[in-house]
Amino acid sequence: MTDKQNEQLNQAQQALKAGETEKALKKLATLNDEVDAYEVNLAYVKALTQAENYTQALVIANERRFEYQNSATGVELLINLELKNGNFINARLLVESLPEISKNRFQKNIHLSEHQALVSMPQTLRTRQQHFFHLGDGGFIKQQRNFNDAVQLPLDLYLQGSQFVLRDPFVKPIIKSSLVQVLVKLKINKEFKLLWLDNQEYPIIPAQFATIETHATVEHVYHVLQHKYENNDPITYHMRLQQFNLQVALLYPFINKAIIDPQKWVAIMGTPRQGGEAPIVQEMRNWQERLNQILFQMGI
Q1: DSSP for 96-165?
Q2: How does residue 47 score in pLDDT terms, banded at 50, 70 and 90?
Q3: DSSP result, 167-196
Q4: I need a surface site. Which of 32, 108, 197, 254 has the fewest CB within 10 A?
Q5: Within 13 Å and on the Cβ side, how many CA atoms surround 48?
């Protein structure tokens, strides 16, 4: 930031302290467009919050969400903004990322906000839950929209809906996987039934699964891709990385049912079948072809 921009930021912060919210907002809106800096974004979000423009405040905060999540002040502000926007599940996901000692106060706030919503807007929540229950009724775009809207359900209603969604044969696999990822990150210690890609139904307890980000097989494949392509062929590396991320997004939480051998999985990506392949390779090829077909049908 230049000296002039630092001065503008200081003036805006002083105006905010003096209660001159509109003046601060004008200065910070301009500065946030000019400067790519967390401290400016944070000041602007605080000003929008003070002006009770919670929707826009969350939009601006999301531009630098990672930095908010890695700051004690930032994550608290982000949790409060998610609650002000009625995004109970998002707020819970943020709280779950905190150290245990910090969780209790935030969890009480979430419980209170959920209770207030149940009392003040029961019909809206009932409608939203019905859309979640019947997620499989629409195409992919509609399913994605209703799945995203479901973050505005209190946890109990969200879990009730999840039981239907995970067993629905018409819900897109990538939506089911996304839902499982949410339940895993929320550490839900309750059994659900999941109708998976092989058309078999499996019992799952989300709290017992690793997240995709920490899954050992996923980490192994990332390492193989990096070693094989990153320096020698960066374009292929990024293509294979994108392809693999889509594959595991479909396979989760049963990644190891398909990726039996990470080295061989990478070796056959994007290559034609060959005669005399080992049964394990043929099985993984079948999975890759099935995943490619699902992605093609979704237009991805």
Answers
A1: HTS-HHHHHHHHHHHHHHHHHHHHH-HHHHHHHHHHHHTGGGS-HHHHHHHHHHGGGS-HHHHHHHHHHH
A2: very high
A3: T-TTS-HHHHHHHHHHHHHTT--S-EEEE-
A4: 108
A5: 23
- Three-state SS for 15-84 is HHHCCCHHHHHHHHHHHHHHCCCHHHHHHHHHHHHHCCCHHHHHHHHHCCHHHHHCCHHHHHHHHHHHHH
Strand partners, 195: 201
Tell me the C-alpha to C-alpha distance, in Å, between residue 214 and each of 25, 53, 218. Answer: 40, 36, 8
Confidence of residue 13 (pLDDT cuts 50, 70, 90): confident
> 0.85 cut: is pTM over it?
yes
- Count Cβ neighbours within 10 Å for each residue of 8-33 and write b for 16 or more, e otherwise: bbeebbebbeeeebebbbebbbebbe
Indicate the pLDDT class of residue 290, thresholds 50, 70 and 90: very high
Among 126, 130, 105, 108, smallest CA distance to 117 is for: 126
Query: How many residues appear in the chain?
Result: 300
Closest-CA residue to 102 (of 143, 71, 133, 128): 71
Q: 49-92: per-residue pLDDT in tens?
A: 999 999 999 999 999 999 999 998 899 999 999 999 999 999 99
Q: Cis before residue 253, ω within 30 degrees of 0?
A: yes
As to burial, measured by CB atoms within 10 angstroms (0-12 exposed, 13-18 middle, 19+ buried), residue 287 is: buried
